[in-house]
Amino acid sequence: MSIRHHIGDDTLMAYVNGTLADSLSVVVATHLAICPKCRESEELMEEMAGLFLMETDTSTLSATETAMADAIPGSTLQEDISEKQSRRMHDYSNTGVPMPLAERMPATLDDIPWRTLIPGISHYPLPRTGSEKKKGTLRLLKIAPGKTMPEHSHSGQELTLILRGSYIDDLGRFQSGDIADLDSDVHHQPVADTAEDCICLIATDAPLKFSGFFSRLLQPVFGI
Ligand SMILES: [Zn+2]
User: Is the pLDDT of residue 111 over 70?
Assistant: First the structure.
C-alpha cells in the first residue's frame, strides 16, 4: 500500500495531546495502524511531550501541572509506545481492517448492512460510546463506481480514511490507506473511481453542510 495523503500535523498533535474529538480519533488511530510515516511523527511528538515534561523545572509548576508531569514519566512513556505498537500491528481481527476500527465493525467490509442514502451512495453509522455521542459523526460510506458525492463543506473538521477503492476531488486522488484531513474552509465533491466501490471511514466533529439539490434530503441523515 503506498500512502500519499497523511494526517495533518495539527490533527496529530491534538490526537497525541488527547484533545481531538473521539470520533476523529478513531480515524486517526486506524490510519496510524497502517501508516509507518505517521507513526514516526506520532512517536516524535510523544517523545517531545515527554521531554518537555521531564526538563521543566517542577518548582515553577502548578499542582495540576506537577500531577500531569508525574503521570507521564519518560521511561513509562516509551514502554507505552512500544506496547501500543505491538497491539496495533498484531491485533487485526477477521474483519480485514485495523483494530481501532475492527472492534466497531458489525461484519467484514463485504457484509456491512448498508443503508441507502441516495442511489449509488449508502452508509453505515458506527456504534459510539460515552463522550463520542456528544457531537460529531462516525460512519462508513460506500460510493458506487463513478458516482459523485453531493457537494458539501464542513462546519468543523472532517477526516476520511479510504478503506477500499479510490476517489478524486480538487485535492487529488485518494486511494486505499490515504486520509483526507479537511477543515471548515474546504468545499469539495468527491467522485468515486470507476473500477470498484469506494468505501471510506468518515468522522466529523460537527455536522456536514450540503449545498445544492441534495441538501434537504441528506442534511437530516448526516447531521445530528
Ligand atoms: Zn500517514
Answer: yes
